[in-house]
Amino acid sequence: MDTQILDGKATALTIRAELAKATAKLKAHNVKPGLVVILVGEDPASQIYVRNKDRAASGAGFEVNTIRLPETVSQQALEAEVEKLNQDPKVHGILVQLPLPGTLNAGAVVDCLDPAKDVDGLSPRSVAAWTLGRPGHKPCTPAGCIELLDRYSIDISGLHMVIVGRSMLVGKPLAALAMARNATVTVCHSRTQDLAGHCRQADVLVAAVGRAKLIQGDWVRSGAIVLDVGINRGEDGKLVGDADQAGMMGRARALTPVPGGIGPMTIAMLIRNTFCCAARSVGLDPEVLLAEAAACTEGAEA
Ligand code: NDP
Predict the structure, then answer these.
(1) Residue in 101, 96, 61, 71 with CA at minimum distance from that of residue 81
(2) Which atom of ligand 1 is nearest to the CA of 166?
(3) Domain containing 162: what range?
(4) In ligand 1, which atom is closest to the CA atom of 45?
(5) Are 190 and 158 in contact, with CB atoms under 8 Å apart?
(6) Which residues line ligand 1 (CB under 6 A)?
(7) What digits encode the pLDDT tens for the residues 211-230?
(8) How many domains does the chain have?
(9) pTM for this model (two decimals)
(10) Residues acting as catalytic residues
(11) Fewer Cβ close by (within 10 Å): the C or N end of the chain?
(12) pLDDT digits (tens, 9 = 90+) for 141-156
């Protein structure tokens, strides 16, 4: 079987081009989407993620600012920073780069976010919205997984999705979004017994653990779709996913690469969420603007 590579990088570029067009239209309403990223400490992976987000959002015509705070920042000062941004009309989206240093209470910081500006979809109101299937911001990585499947016209309705990982950032919200698409969902974690057996049942297998090549090639049923969310450094320093990708080639029907799979899609969703906040701030329907931009991009590509 030929394994189709689900190219998140190319798909994200298309989405970003659509967003740039839609953003240009927003300018007619004197709105420039504003994104602020709060980065605490010096975590090297977070520095790279933040730089990539900054580049992508700037490229789409956004105003992007990164607030860098020392690891020693107090909980009170960090929450005050969030409150200040909540009040700033030029700021449409606020992202607190996680994880925060262990001395800080990340949950309490996220609780301070104005839900209308919570572009990561992690504040309590956003969590309620995606859990209940109501409109609201969806967390960027799971939204990126669903969007990538959509863009490849892969319908998960009725399929069995097995998600390895139950974090608030990936596994839990993805389970909710996949159920909303009528998938049958199993969520596995560190206490799951017979992980390989569960994985072998999957029509769509999602690896979101953070352990290089944990998911072996022969854990994948022939013809399954594999979304590899994990980002790990291999022994040679190169980025690798949670899945043994070489072992899945010829076995999986489709596979997301690492890098170039879910990572760029996550950033594209962050930009889209910020765009939506900006459009709503002046009473415009972001979906209408995005549909027009997508139609315009398709026309240009044809
Ligand atoms: P967390 O550490 O928050 O969660 C990891 C999950 O994996 C937990 O639910 C944990 O179980 C489970 N787990 C750990 N070990 C095992 C095991 N041996 N068998 C089965 N399950 C296990 O990680 P995140 O969800 O934040 O991230 C997961 C991966 O995705 C990381 O590599 C991260 O870098 C990557 N990531 C990628 C993004 C992207 O843009 N592509 C964005 C976000 C994350 P338990 O709950 O029992 O502890």
Answers:
(1) 96
(2) 9
(3) 140-262
(4) 34
(5) no
(6) 141, 164-167, 169-171, 188-192, 195, 208-211, 214, 229-232, 262-263, 266
(7) 999 999 999 999 999 999 99
(8) 2
(9) 0.96
(10) 53, 97, 120
(11) C
(12) 999 999 999 999 999 9
